Amino acid sequence: KPFWLKAACSGSREPPWAVKIRTAPPHPPRVAQVIAMVLASAASAAAAATGGTGLSLFGYNRENFLYDRKMRQETEYQLMRFRIQQAELWREDVKDIIGLTSVKMDTYLIVNAVQLGFCVMAFCEGRLAAGTPQWLIGCHTLCLGGAFMYLLMSVWLSMHASVTAKAYEVRLLTQHVRLPVPTWAQLEGARTYGSGFEKVNARQMFRVPFVQGTQETVLKASQPLVPWHDA
């Protein structure tokens, strides 16, 4: 029968065109499953977001750690170069100071050698006139002999001083003022392995920038306090 005829026969007061839409009540187990699926999806999304954030923080802090280690290594190497340059300046100072003595002795040597030649010429050709008293001849000979011995000793001592200064310069440069060439242990101690990041504190690995402060602050906060009697 048509729906309007059924409505008329049933004695309903509603108009025949008013159709009631009835919905079946939800099934309780189905609602629980839906809620569980929603919660599981939310938990998975939260876990994924937390994991992604932690991974980003880990990568950021690890990159900062490697950058700081690289800058420290370059600083250590630069300090080594500064020490070598400083030692080179010291070596140049030693050479200049001792070279001054050598130059002075060489100058004295030339002048005294010329004067020594004059004394020899006076001995050979500087004869006194005939009839000169004996005491004057003796004084003349004594003066020439004293001057000759003095100039001869000055020449010998200047040569000895020049050789001694050069020997002392060699001793200083080879035993005391050596270039501080770094050893393999020093070069190895200046470098840092990437695995060194695994030994830092977990708070430093997952430090949140601008929230937990700098690395130095986190490091100081993570270190235990030392009693005053142990310090």
Describe the structure.
The chain has 231 residues and is mainly α. 73% of the residues lie in helices and 0% in strands. The protein has helices at residues 3-10, 28-125, 134-176, 184-190, 202-205, 215-222. Helix 2 (28-125) runs antiparallel to helix 3. The protein is rod-shaped, with a radius of gyration of 52 Å. It starts with a helix and ends in a 9-residue tail after the last helix. Mean pLDDT is 77; it is low at 1-8, 17-24 and 225-231.
Structural class: mainly alpha
Helix content: over 70%
The count of helical stretches stands at: 6
What is the distance, rounded to the nearest whole angstrom, between the alpha carbons of the first and last residues? 102 Å
| Radius of gyration from the alpha-carbon trace, in angstroms | 52 Å
Task: Note the topology.
Layout: H1 3-10, H2 28-125, H3 134-176, H4 184-190, H5 202-205, H6 215-222
Helix pairs in contact: 2-3
Give a quick rundown of the structure.
This protein is mainly alpha-helical and 231 residues long. It is built from 6 helices and no strands.
Which structural traits does this protein have?
disordered C terminus; 73% helix; disordered N terminus; mainly alpha; 231 residues; 6 helices
